[in-house]
Amino acid sequence: MTNELFQAASEPKVNATSHFDQLTRELCKDTSVWFVTFSSQTSARGNPAQTNYAYANSFMERVCEKRVADGLHGLAIQWGWIGSVGTVVKRLEQGDFSTQYISQYLPQSLDSCFDCMEQALVCGHPVVGVFVKNTLQTSHVNKDNDTVKQSILDQVVKILALKDPDSLTDSITLQDVGIDSIMTSEVKQLLEKSVNVSLSNKEVKTLTFQKLREMDASR
Prior knowledge:
Distance between the termini: 43 Å
CATH class of the largest domain: Alpha Beta
Organism: Biomphalaria glabrata (Bloodfluke planorb)
Structural class: mainly alpha
Strand order of the largest sheet: 1-2-4
Protein name: Carrier domain-containing protein
CATH architecture of the largest domain: 3-Layer(aba) Sandwich
Domain Carrier: 143-219
InterPro entries: ACP-like_sf (IPR036736), NAD(P)-bd_dom_sf (IPR036291), PKS_KR (IPR013968), PKS_NRPS_Biosynth_Enz (IPR050091), PP-bd_ACP (IPR009081)
Oligomer: single chain
Number of strands: 7
CATH superfamily of the largest domain: NAD(P)-binding Rossmann-like Domain
Number of helices: 10
GO molecular function: fatty acid synthase activity; oxidoreductase activity
Radius of gyration: 22 Å
């Protein structure tokens, strides 16, 4: 990465945060003024080829920490994967599943983001993380302490939030029951992890429930 590319990605957040910090200190003497910046989980956990983006977010967090230390309000929210907007969703729509966000987090709805932001505003910490952790498990331990694999079919039903799985005939495809790009990414992860099968977006959407049952039988 060149210096020019690094600066092009980091300067907007760095400069804007610096200017707003200075202006609010000079013009807004009231300590009740809210100072909120939107950071990212890349600042806390990193992401390949995004050092400049992580640096810019980390800079905003340090400014907020300094403001709180000075008796002013400052809050940086480390957002995870937002379900309906942002770079991750654009990548999914283009068929790019390379970012580690896809495996680490689940999409968070905008309503949930607003609810969490309201809590973050009054939590008293200068930096908070808001995200939905991906806890999808492909197995569980039963009462006899034996590891039992969860069926692929059951997990797909859960991902798609299908209310009547018994009505799903063999010929029905995932596209028939309304799979979207976010769900497609989750099913793709599941198949790669469970049966080491890598499919394209189109192939995932055209999977039939018969094929899912066959995958379960082959495990």
